[in-house]
Amino acid sequence: MNVRKRxxxxxxxxxxxxxxxxxxxxxxxxxMAIFISPVHWMRHMTFIxxxxxxxxxxxxxxxxxxxxxxxxxxxxxxxxxxxxxxYFTGNMAPQLPWIAALHPVIATVLLIIAxxxxxxxxxxxxxxGER
Length: 131
Fold this sequence. Notes:
Blueprint: H1 3-35, H2 40-51, H3 54-65, H4 70-91, H5 97-100, H6 103-124
Helix pairs in contact: 1-2, 1-3, 1-6, 3-4, 4-6
Keywords: Membrane, Transmembrane, Transmembrane helix
Pfam families: DUF6220 (PF19728)
Transmembrane segments: 12-35, 47-65, 72-90, 96-119
């Protein structure tokens, strides 16, 4: 594997790990808002804007640089779809509360996907996990 591909894959893996950490912090902030004080909702709502679409966009760029396998692109697409679904469900509480109730379920799915992407991307650095 050449230097460009390896560097792209390393950066992709680092971004995947940062995204996983951000999702974890986001869930923690929601827990703080529920169990400690509602003032933490503003932090929860603001924090997503810092990473929600930005990190996956850079991951997409470095997936190209690292000539990542298809799963990497599908993972980024799943991030975009999940984040959009999170915005949608988070804003639907007044109109359709049962759809808003899916918000934490989607967050859990997103956390699991992010963890799997980190594991798989680390394997891809050495050329493993190509499928």
